[in-house]
Design goal:
By secondary structure, the chain is an alpha+beta fold. The protein is built from 3 helices and 8 strands, in the order βββαββββαβα. The longest helix has 21 residues, at 85-105.
Length: 203
Amino acid sequence: MHGDDHHDHEHDHDHDHEHDHDHGHDYDFTEVDHDADGRDSDVPHYDNNPVEEGSKLHLEMHRMVDELGKYAIEMEIKSEEGLKKSDLIGFIEDMMHASASDCFRHGADLIGHIKSFLKVGEQSVMCSMVDESIPIRVQDHIQADVIYDGIFVLHVIVHGIWDDVIRECTLEVLPGIAKKWGVPYRIMADYYDTEKSIAHHEK
């Protein structure tokens, strides 16, 4: 993540022009691509979904080589009682580890990059993971110790499995991790690609 560089990025692109993008931008305002893989019922559509309207912060992940699968999910976290920031960071780190572990169980052999972003107002916590054996890098820029409402974005890039498999792994572990940390969430949207999944699995 490069500070507020994304605000300077053009917002009128679409996925067909990903090769024209500045790959230094990890997050962008972009349309969300939903593909049917049997799990769309887990990710509800809302007519006023701000992500689909392109008005909320969303992420765009570039594909480095064809063997890298990528998946991104965005959810709202809201609690009237409030959640300790330390618990939310614990939830985020658990999600990153659990998603990676499940991906390895389903055929992934290398982490490309697993990143997350919790936005609360104009402040944020960013986490980065490139290896399960190395501690997750946490950049905490949220001043409050208790959080009532935020947007959580997780994106997973791994080698060896395709986007739809990463999506299934992530959605499988999410409910249990959220329950463990007492984090209420509402999935707003996700982004993944199934275009090359058949060719990928036939290799």
